[in-house]
């Protein structure tokens, strides 16, 4: 396993409280109305309101680009929870960010298989190329990077994701070119899934349970993922009867 990234927490980085104080002054009435409308739709899907906390955290992240102090308070109010309960959940999961992410959030898998296939080198070169570390965004707000423990796509290692869409079989050079294309507005197509990349905020909205209509676009499995199935069919193998 690779050593932790020393740039993950810059020396002069503002605290989470400072980020919230400077970037959020409360939701505007029209934003609050829209968020409440979406939140009520999401909450209505669950037998107990508090069960909707995870999707509601994605919802407020889709508004701010991270889970802000206002977002914590909004979720608490909508679900009848204390703010402490909401913060305890949002800070437990790495998918909820504590400071603004970029328009394109780029994740590099550095878990075992991806690491030995080149993931560590991709991370090192990409981080140096972009000039930011783990969960940091570029000054222009275009790109943020994250060291991911697993993308669940070992058969395509080393793998990267952009706003949770797959970019398979990467190299240091292809990773840097991908980020350069994103910064230049070229929007390269993912290897699998929809051909169009959404933004980080749009991806968060989808994860909240509000679909964008692209779930069925493109292949979800391909290449190595299907080899076992092909061999089974060729040999007439079937799963044991229940």
Automatic annotation (TrEMBL):
Cofactors, names only: [2Fe-2S] cluster
Q: Which residues does the annotated region (Disordered) include?
A: 1-26
Enzyme class, first EC level, given as a word: oxidoreductase
The record's listing under InterPro entries reads:
NuoE-like (IPR002023), NuoE_dom (IPR042128), NuoE_N (IPR041921), Thioredoxin-like_sf (IPR036249)
* UniProt xrefs under Gene3D superfamilies: Glutaredoxin, NADH-quinone oxidoreductase subunit E
Any keyword Metal-binding? yes
Q: Which GO terms describe its molecular function?
A: NADH dehydrogenase (quinone) (non-electrogenic) activity
CDD domains assigned: TRX_Fd_NuoE
Instruction: Supply the EC number(s).
Output: 1.6.5.9
Record key words, sorted:
2Fe-2S, Iron, Iron-sulfur, Metal-binding, Oxidoreductase
Note whether Iron occurs among the keywords: yes
What protein family does this chain belong to?
Belongs to the complex I 24 kDa subunit family.
- The entry's protein name is NADH-quinone oxidoreductase subunit NuoE
* Gene name of the encoded protein: nuoE
């Amino acid at each position: 396993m690779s050593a932790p990234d020393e740039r993950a927490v810059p020396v002069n980085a503002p605290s989470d409280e400072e980020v919230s104080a400077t970037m959020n002054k409360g939701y505007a009435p029209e934003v609050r109305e829209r968020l409440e409308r979406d939140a009520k739709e999401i909450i209505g899907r669950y037998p107990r309101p508090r069960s909707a906390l995870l999707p509601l955290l994605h919802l407020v992240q889709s508004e701010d680009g991270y889970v802000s102090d206002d977002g914590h308070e909004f979720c608490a109010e909508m679900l009848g929870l204390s703010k402490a309960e909401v913060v305890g959940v949002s800070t437990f999961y790495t998918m909820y960010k504590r400071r603004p992410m970029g328009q394109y959030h780029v994740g590099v898998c550095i878990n075992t298989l991806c690491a030995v296939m080149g993931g560590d080198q991709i991370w090192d070169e990409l981080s140096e190329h972009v000039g930011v570390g783990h969960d940091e965004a570029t000054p222009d707000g275009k790109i943020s990077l994250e060291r991911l423990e697993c993308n669940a796509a070992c058969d395509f290692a080393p793998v990267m994701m952009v706003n949770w869409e797959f970019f398979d079989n990467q190299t240091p050079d292809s990773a840097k070119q991908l980020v350069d294309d994103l910064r230049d507005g070229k929007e390269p197509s993912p290897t699998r899934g929809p051909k169009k990349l959404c933004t980080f905020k749009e991806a968060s909205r989808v994860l909240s349970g509000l679909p964008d209509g692209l779930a069925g676009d493109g292949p979800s499995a391909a290449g190595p993922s299907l080899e076992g199935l092909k061999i089974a069919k060729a040999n007439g193998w079937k799963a044991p009867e229940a």
